Amino acid sequence: MHTREEQLAAFGRLLDIMDDLREKCPWDRKQTFDSLRQNTIEETYELATAISRQDMNEISKELGDVLLHVVFYAKMGSEEKWNFSGTPEKDEPHESFDIADVCNRLCDKLIFRHPHVYGEMTNDQSSITNPEEVSHLWEQVKLKEKGGNKTVLGGIPDSLPSLVKAYRIQDKVANVGFDWEKREDVWAKVKEEIAEFEAEMRNCENDPISNDQMVNEFGDVMFALINAARLYKIRPDNALEHTNLKFMRRFNYIEEKAREQGRALQDMSLEEMDALWNEAKAQE
């Protein structure tokens, strides 16, 4: 591993390169906050994919791409003339910032939100010994933070994927005591929501207009299952992605075997495809 001096030198090198690119490269010079936004989202998903695949070399590479965007935004924030959209006259006046502001604000926040590590603690905080207690404390401190979120759910981004958003909603309210007393009690709620969905589904067979209500009931089923996953320490997005990858592996096997037989999938019966599916499953 590199020394702290080597790490700081590498970060300084990145800042120097960013200065050069912003000045000398036509593409980098043209970018705005808005033009980079979608690329940032894509880079974050690529990092998440590398983590799912447990590929350390790829994780290192994708972390660099994400870091580039952090440095890029900070560089644009430090410039006297910058804008979000590429049309300065449409942008509001701004307060400049640079990478030091980004780092210092992050450090201040981390220190403030970890009173059990930095600074004085209350009697309740002095006994913190496990991650669950830290998570609970984190949410409590965030509500007290100057300029922070004033409501429990106020900090959840609107643009989060729905599956992740549901988990975060449940996690946040649980940290202020709105949760099941015993985790196994959640299964009664899951069964209740499934029963309500099945009832609505039967209604929709005779009344197509009720489809919106069926959608709502299905959403309730998913929300309850995500809650169950949280209570059993399962990240539902990770679990679903594992299943996605498993399904893709098995279906790719079916497709490969069909190709070896010189057949198209459309010409195979469901029974034949099921047999190949079971072969793929047996090999895992």
Question: Care to give the gist of this entry?
Answer:
With 284 residues, the protein is mostly helical. The chain contains 11 helices and no strands. The chain is extended.
Total helical segments: 11
Which structural class is indicated by helix and strand composition? mainly alpha
Strand content: under 5%
What's the CATH first level of the largest domain?
Mainly Alpha
Uncertain segments of ≥5 residues (pLDDT<50)?
Answer: none
Question: CATH homologous superfamily of the largest domain, by name?
Answer: MazG-like
CATH topology category name of the largest domain: Helix Hairpins
What order do the helices and strands follow? Answer: HHHHHHHHHHH
What gap, in angstroms, lies between the N and C termini?
36 Å
- Name the helicity range: 55-70%
Strand tally: 0
Considering the chains and any ligands shown, give keywords for the structure:
284 residues; mainly alpha; Helix Hairpins; 11 helices; 0% strand
